[in-house]
Amino acid sequence: MVTLGLLAVVSILFVLIAWRAHAFLAALDTVGVPAAPLPRSTLVSVVIPARNEAANIERCLRSVFCQDHPHLEVVVVDDNSTDETPAILARLAAQEPRLTVVAGAPLPPGWTGKNFALSQAAALVRGDWLLFLDADTWLEPSAVRAAVAHAAAHRLGLLSLIPRQELGSFWERVIQPFVMLVIALLLPLQAIADPRRPRIAYANGQFLLVRRAAYEKVGGHAALRDAVVEDSALARAVKAAGYTVQLADGRGLVHIRMYRNLREIWEGWSKNSFLSAGRCLRNVVLLIAAISAALLLPPAFLLAGLARLGSAGPEPLAVLLSAVGGFQVALVLYLAWRCYREVGAPGRYALTLPLGAAMFNALLCYSAYRVLSGRGVVWKGRVYTA
Q1: pLDDT tens digits, one per residue of 40-55
Q2: 49 DSSP β-pair partners
Q3: Which of 25, 33, 75, 174 can pair with 121 through a Cys bridge, CB separation 3.0 to 4.6 Å?
Q4: How many angstroms separate the CA atoms of 48 and 103, rounded?
Q5: Which run of H or of E encompasses 291?
Q6: What is the enclosing helix (H) or strand (E) of 142?
Q7: Half-sphere exposure of 366 (CA within 13 A, CB side)
Q8: Of 98, 213, 274, 236, whose CA–CA distance to 160 is shortest?
Q9: pTM, to two decimals
Q10: pLDDT tens digit string along 63-97?
Q11: Packed helices 113-122 and 230-240: angle between N→C axes, nearest 10 degrees
């Protein structure tokens, strides 16, 4: 009875996983490139925070300068960088009159570095739309035009795009797709789009376009000064102010390489993961339990069924365990293969799914430990107590 009960519970879990995967893909809108240009009068202000981004900032800015909507102003805040970022920005500013470089002020108490940098830049810009980019993104030439046209056509207050991932190292290809799979399965896209649920909103700060009127109405990043997960906090504020927000597929328009090695992956996701889980230890336990059940129980059922078949012959329980366990293992591998391919990793990395899950569980626990112990999260050489 215990075995049949576990089998039933895991089968229901897999039905829910398959349904959530389908719902995510069905609800995710894709931003395409419009045929018509934007009106010449539409000024877009591109704002980029940069702290020790020497490896990324030039590629990001050159992709912005090449946009087919030329009416842009670009403000980069050098957030007290200690690498070659200031020199690169000075050279590019001398070549491009649309670029303004701001030397960031020292970080005051009560602020996160990114929010303070964005707030300094937002005070200087004049655009009808504000586009906040991370320095590790780069854009296709039509990205700005497509995003603004989409947001205007759908009367959005805020539009955030999911970029195409560039995955180079082994650990990027193991961990990043699994994290994206977890996010996709947990994100309530329909609730995000529902104006009757103002507290449910999500955004990706790598590419975040916001209508100026909406940004000013909610008080901008100054109103979110201590938020570590500032992108979703801004989306919730804009939605609560009565505007429509949307998370959409922008993989044909935006590219990103978030991290380059295990250390960066660990620091980046341990910063966000527990906070994104609502700072709730119960949510962490439930998530780890669901991940473990989904990955460990199907092969256990399959092996148990095959063992019973070998010893007792084709009895009903042995056949049931083998059939259901085999189907669940196949479904896990298929979902992993689809996810890893969608994110940009070779399909063979689906076989590393258990390793990716173990690393995700470990960093989620570490993130919870850092926050609950009062040690805070670490990002870009700064410690933030959440």
Answers
A1: 889 999 999 999 999 9
A2: 77
A3: 75
A4: 12
A5: helix 281-312
A6: none
A7: 16
A8: 236
A9: 0.90
A10: 999 999 989 999 999 999 999 999 999 999 999 99
A11: 50
